[in-house]
Specification:
Residues 1-19 form the signal peptide. By secondary structure, the protein is mainly beta. It is built from three helices and 25 strands.
């Protein structure tokens, strides 16, 4: 019996070591949009924390048909990249995948919504897409099944009665949808777990200035504002954090000028896109305490507007071979000579 157990261990131990070695690594990325540049780029977070900042790599360019990309979101489970292009009045869907350690997409978009001016989008864990319809005081959504069938978007909330007033910033914490209002009643609000119960929309915080970006991580809600009266001279914006169910917001920083978007990762970090300064900065969401002075630089990106976080593993078997070859060839020059902006 003892010999049999030793034999089993002799087989299982090498196999477990092999299985551990063969597990695909998880790659972490930020996806950034630049409306004025007409580009969508990605940042590898493998070296996150480098005091000199990271590099950006082009993912999509104006030559790929983009005009004014703003909101970006990634459905990692299904390998989908969503881009809200306000210049095209469309939301585009791309097949996204990891090749080596790089994030690529097939550059052959599917239009999932058109004829609507959208700046902010969010995806939940089921793959449903949420977005704001500017000028309509409305939030709309599409499920995976609706997008696959080519169905039009459905209305989620509409009108001031549902606490939707020029909605800006969207986030989904895997349970609830959170957004900000940019007209009259400046506020951050949260939908119930079942959004059809529109009467249960909850105001988490009221603000003195328009809300821009919103992010949520299950424990906290983060948001950015413009024209903050507390902003430092030469800046103008502010970043706030509060508990997921509301309460008194904590002002994290006023060392931003135009913080258009904000995102969280799976490790407690919060990333803020500052369009006017052309950079993405970060802070620890786990601490959620005021930060004195400048926020740590993540990456410089001219006129950065949207920011989204994703983590994915390489899965060659799911990639269309022609798309993989095309996308890889398109990205080679960018990967060899990454686009890095010098400090202004």
């Amino acid at each position: 019996m003892k010999g049999f157990l030793l034999l089993c261990l002799g087989i299982l131990l090498p196999w477990s070591a092999f299985a551990k070695r063969s597990s695909p690594p998880i790659h972490r990325f930020l996806v950034l949009s630049s409306a004025s540049e007409g580009t969508v780029s990605f940042v590898k977070l493998d070296s996150f924390g480098d005091e000199h900042g990271l590099s950006t790599f082009n993912l999509l360019r104006s030559e790929d048909g983009l005009v004014s990309p703003r909101g970006v979101a990634v459905d990692a489970e299904r390998g989908r990249l969503y881009v809200a292009d306000s210049g095209l009045s469309k939301i585009l869907q791309y097949k996204a995948f990891v090749h080596g350690s790089d994030l690529l997409c097939d550059r052959i978009p599917t239009t999932v919504a058109s004829g609507v001016s959208v700046r902010y989008i969010a995806v939940d864990h089921q793959g449903s897409l949420y977005f704001n319809a500017e000028g309509k005081n409305a939030l709309q959504y599409m499920t995976v099944e609706m997008m696959s069938a080519g169905e039009p978007p459905a209305s989620l909330y509409a009108g001031a009665g549902a606490k939707v007033m020029a909605p800006r910033g969207l986030a989904h914490d895997s349970i609830s949808l959170v957004w900000g209002n940019d007209q009259q009643d400046f506020s951050v609000v949260k939908a119930p777990e079942k959004p059809e119960n529109s009467g249960q929309v909850k105001v988490l915080a009221r603000t003195k200035e328009p809300v821009l970006g919103v992010a949520a991580d299950g424990a906290h809600v983060y948001y950015t504002t413009a024209r903050s009266p507390a902003a430092r001279p030469g800046f103008g914006g502010a970043i706030y954090a509060m508990k997921k169910d509301g309460g008194n917001p904590i002002r994290i920083s006023t060392a931003v000028r135009k913080p258009t978007d904000i995102a969280t990762d799976s490790q407690g970090n919060v990333f803020v896109a500052d369009e006017e300064r052309g950079r993405v900065v970060s802070f620890s969401g786990a601490v959620a305490a005021p930060v004195k002075g400048e926020l740590p630089l993540v990456v410089r990106c001219p006129s950065v507007w949207g920011v989204a976080y994703t983590e994915m593993v390489e899965d060659i078997s799911s990639q269309p071979r022609t798309s993989l070859i095309t996308a890889t060839a398109h990205a080679v020059s960018e990967l060899i000579s990454p686009h890095v902006e010098e400090e202004a």
